[in-house]
Hints:
This protein is an all-alpha fold. It has one domain (6-185, 197-391): MFS general substrate transporter like domains (Growth Hormone, Chain: A), CATH 1.20.1250. It is built from 16 helices and no strands. It is globular and about 60 Å long. 56% of the residues are buried.
Amino acid sequence: MTALRPGEFVSLVALLISLVALSTDAMLPALTAIAGDLGASRPNDAQFVVTALFLGLGFGQIVFGPLSDSIGRKPAIHTGLILYMTGCLMSIFAPTFNVMIAGRVLQGFGVAGPRVVTVALVRDQYEGRQMARLMSFAMAVFILVPTIAPALGQGILWLGDWRAIFATFFAIAAIAFSWVAVRQPETLPAARRRSLSPRAIGGAVREVLRIRAARGYTVATGCALAPFVAYLSSAQQIFQGAYGTGALFPVYFGVLALAIGVASLVNGRLVLKHGMRRLSKTAAVCITLASVVAWPLAFAFDGLPPLWLFMAYLLVVFLFFGFLYGNLNALAMEPLGHIAGVGAAVVAALSTFIALPLGGLMGQSFDGTMYAQIVAFAVFGAGAFAAMRWAEGDGSLRRSRDPVAPS
């Protein structure tokens, strides 16, 4: 089996990565219906349908990275997709809210397979700025999913009920399973595979944690992701509850997602000229400054600025988020090429475990105003910038150029 052409490879990578976004964003219009039908006790409990997925994702990433280093990339992806589809079946037939949450955790655990192993799949074949460029193009394709996913979920709700959304997830995962099986060659030969023993995994994890750059950029990734988790878990309450957008919620959500996609596409071109570090730090500063400016504006409107003003603020933030997130992942993975599987697992899991409690706390603080969301972007934007500076250590990284992929 020969290597895929870049266009098909980017499309496959985008599909595998986008399962996380699809599983999150297509559910958003249905959160109120799910909570009501299954007996959730508080309005904010509906957010657990989103955060439960991230909880499973965090634990799954720890497992699937080392697993892919031992059994190969394709078997690990296939195992994850099977678990994900099992979680979808649990949610389809869930009789209670607790069973729904359990199914969502299993979906997150399973989808960690394609999510984290796909990063290693890319790292097996690319490095440096070329890797960042390819990931940016994949992110641009993948971002179309959150652009249309809420509309997909809303359309399914018009035709059926929320259980049909999970049936759609099941079908898409089955397509991804078949595509990988038929078209994608294995990128980790048997000679490069590592033992799956706990001692070997522990040694690899310690090696990752000893690398200052990997640690620092992982923390920066977690800080960048935290306010995004808060936004995702409360987006339906913000737009449909606070602003009363009704069935137009997917439109507003999609416009903001499109801003990230445009930025990711532009980043794929700018990174070759300006480098990942400069673009990432500039983006973190801009997110923080925009939020500092937005705070007094929100205060002037008692925490609920006009929708057009809040949308303008979020467009700026999400535009710079598109420059920030993909570069931070590539920077964290840059020194981990010799242990790409476990490296991707540790980077993804740690950043998720940083983002989930912080973002979940901010989401649960939602009280009908925008104060918590704006503060989250300001504080964690500054945190991401500080972590990047720390990752550079004594300044040697600042003085060096970003690695360039061989021509």
